[in-house]
């Protein structure tokens, strides 16, 4: 349906309608702008949220639990999701809002041009109408003047008193007026014909053509709105596959949570390598009574009950909080802080092994970097030797020497740490073998030394408490089984810093330990360093380690502050 034929007389209405169309287009553009600002703020907030909850520590310090790793994967997927929201906002800004604002400016210019053409055509028609109207009014005046002249002429012509000159003058005046009226009539007829022609052109050619252009302009505006509506939706649709992948990644991360794996990591992270404590022993307080009794019996406990329990009654466990002597309960109590040592000997065996292995891996990486740097310097030196104009080969020699020195230092460190690692692994395998032997060959008495090894000393009256850690090995650790013998072969023996009395008997079957009998007095030459063992010396000069909780220690005043 054409606006030119149907709305030929609605120029002002079309003027208002086209203005409304532009206003509506700009209103939609404003809506798109606010929408993309929401997307930008949403993406910004998502990225801020991801940054807030992302680990701030290095990956080596982060927990390796599957639940943590899955959460970090979800954060990564959410960060990608935020990137897609930013992409949506960017596409809306360029393909929707940007095009709408540009099209709005073009639309305003085109509308102005069409309306100016319509106004010009209307003004030209109005001018033709004025000319025609003026000629009409002039013709009307001339006709009235001619009528007056005719009445005057007829009156004088019938008047007998009128002179001939007056009649002749009136006649001439009538003739002039009649001639002017005829000319005005012709002019009016010409202007009327011209106006009718122009009016026909105006309403049949000019206005339909202008209105047709205005109609096409308005229809293009409507089409443009439809296209931008589609672009608005397509901006969302294009990112749906990637957003779906992000959501699928979150689901995969959620399914990757493995409670058994996390439990195994907990064991791997905190396993100390120590054996669990033994059973709580029976404390026989009637020992002193049995020794002083007149009947000569060993104790008030029936012999059958003692034999049924597997021999003499066990001694109090120094690790138990109710023991007579002060001890260090690491299992449920707070482990005392030990100074960090280079060989990690202050850590439990399993943790020490892991830390040493980690350090060895890091040293190997550094060594590989130094080797690569050395190779690169050697290649550069060869190039300089073949092409002296490129550089002086001797200038690289200090750097090569420094790199080789660093490599030697790293190899030395690796060897030292591997020695410590082999020592830890050797001790763990030895302890595992002893523990297996204890499980398969346990005697009725069932007593164990501080290192978990079995003893057959049935003459001992009490059960030797079960220990979890070997005595510390002075100096740098090594895997030599005679390490304690080498230590005690020093020419200058350690000075005596106190004495102690054995509260319980101890067989001291393992390397570096010292056997003692109950109530035996020993010299103290080295205090307990926090591992539950004290270094002592017998009257005959034999030295070794005894459990700190098995003896009552008295230090000299001069050595208590050391």
Structure overview:
With 562 residues, the protein is mainly alpha-helical. The chain folds into 3 domains: 3-261, Up-down Bundle (Substrate Binding Domain Of Dnak, Chain:A, Domain 2), CATH 1.20.1270; 349-426; 498-555, SH3 Domains (SH3 type barrels), CATH 2.30.30.40. It has helices spanning 3-6, 11-53, 66-158, 164-255, 259-270, 287-292, 303-308, 349-386, 397-440, 483-487, 557-560; strands at residues 498-502, 521-526, 533-537, 543-547, 551-555. Strands 4-3-2-1-5 form a 5-stranded antiparallel sheet. A hairpin with a 6-residue loop joins strand 2 (521-526) and strand 3. 22% of the residues are buried. Residues 292-338 and 440-491 have low confidence and may be disordered.
Total strand segments:
5
Strand content: under 5%
Widest sheet, order of strands: 4-3-2-1-5
CATH superfamily of the largest domain: Arfaptin homology (AH) domain/BAR domain
Per CATH, the class of the largest domain reads Mainly Alpha
Element-level helix/strand string: HHHHHHHHHHEEEEEH
| CATH architecture label of the largest domain | Up-down Bundle
Would you kindly provide a brief summary of this structure?
The chain has helices at residues 3-6, 11-53, 66-158, 164-255, 259-270, 287-292, 303-308, 349-386, 397-440, 483-487, 557-560, and strands at residues 498-502, 521-526, 533-537, 543-547, 551-555.
Topology:
Elements: H1 3-6, H2 11-53, H3 66-158, H4 164-255, H5 259-270, H6 287-292, H7 303-308, H8 349-386, H9 397-440, H10 483-487, E1 498-502, E2 521-526, E3 533-537, E4 543-547, E5 551-555, H11 557-560
Antiparallel strand pairs: 1-2, 1-5, 2-3, 3-4
């Amino acid at each position: 349906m054409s606006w030119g034929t149907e709305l030929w007389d609605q120029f002002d209405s079309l003027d208002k309608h086209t203005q409304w169309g532009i206003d509506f287009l700009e209103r939609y553009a404003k809506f798109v702008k606010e929408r993309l600002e929401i997307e930008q703020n949403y993406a910004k907030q998502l990225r801020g949220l991801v940054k807030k909850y992302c680990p701030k520590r290095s990956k080596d310090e982060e927990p390796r639990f599957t639940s943590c790793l899955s959460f970090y994967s979800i954060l990564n997927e959410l960060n990608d999701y935020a990137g897609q929201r930013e992409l949506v906002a960017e596409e809306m800004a360029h393909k929707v809002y940007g095009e709408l604002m540009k099209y709005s400016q073009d639309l305003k210019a085109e509308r102005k041009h069409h309306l100016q053409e319509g106004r010009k055509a209307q003004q030209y028609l109005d001018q033709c109408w004025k000319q025609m109207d003026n000629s009409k009014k002039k013709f009307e005046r001339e006709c009235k003047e001619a009528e007056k002249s005719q009445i005057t002429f007829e009156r004088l012509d019938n008047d007998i008193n009128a002179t001939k000159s007056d009649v002749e003058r009136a006649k001439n005046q009538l003739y002039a007026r009649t001639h002017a009226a005829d000319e005005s009539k012709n002019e009016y007829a010409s202007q009327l014909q011209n106006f009718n022609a122009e009016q026909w052109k105006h309403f049949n050619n000019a206005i339909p053509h202008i209105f047709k252009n205005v109609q096409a302009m308005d229809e293009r505006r409507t089409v443009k709105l439809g296209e931008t509506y589609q672009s608005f939706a397509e901006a969302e649709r294009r990112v749906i596959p990637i957003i779906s992948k992000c959501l699928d990644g979150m689901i995969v991360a959620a399914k990757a949570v493995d409670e058994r794996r996390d439990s195994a990591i907990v064991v791997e992270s905190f396993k100390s390598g120590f054996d669990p404590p033994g059973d709580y022993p029976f404390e026989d307080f009637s020992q002193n009574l049995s020794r002083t009794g007149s009947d000569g019996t060993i104790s008030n406990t029936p012999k059958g009950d003692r034999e049924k329990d597997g021999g003499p009654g066990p001694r109090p466990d120094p690790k138990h909080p109710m023991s007579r002597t002060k001890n260090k309960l690491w299992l449920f109590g707070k482990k005392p802080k030990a100074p960090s040592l280079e060989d990690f000997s202050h850590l439990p065996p399993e943790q020490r092994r892991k830390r040493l292995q980690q350090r060895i891996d890091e040293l190997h990486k550094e060594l590989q970097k130094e080797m690569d740097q050395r190779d690169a310097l050697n290649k550069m030196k060869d190039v300089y030797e073949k092409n002296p104009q490129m550089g002086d080969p001797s200038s690289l020699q200090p750097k090569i020497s420094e790199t080789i020195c660093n490599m030697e230092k790293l190899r030395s460190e690796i060897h030292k740490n591997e020695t410590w690692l082999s020592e830890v692994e050797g001790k763990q395998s030895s302890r595992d073998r002893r523990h297996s032997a204890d499980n398969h060959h346990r005697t009725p008495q069932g007593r164990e030394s501080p290192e978990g090894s079995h003893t057959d000393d049935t003459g001992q009256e009490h059960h030797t408490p079960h220990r979890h850690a070997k005595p510390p090995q002075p100096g740098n650790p090594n895997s030599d089984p005679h390490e304690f013998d080498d230590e005690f072969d020093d020419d200058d023996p350690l000075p005596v810093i106190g004495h102690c009395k054995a509260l319980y008997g101890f067989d001291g079957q393992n390397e570096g330990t010292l056997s003692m009998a109950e109530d035996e007095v020993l010299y103290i030459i080295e205090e307990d360093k926090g591992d539950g063992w004290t270094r002592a010396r017998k009257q005959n000069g034999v030295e070794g380690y005894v459990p700190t909780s098995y003896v009552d220690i008295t230090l000299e005043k001069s050595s208590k502050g050391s």
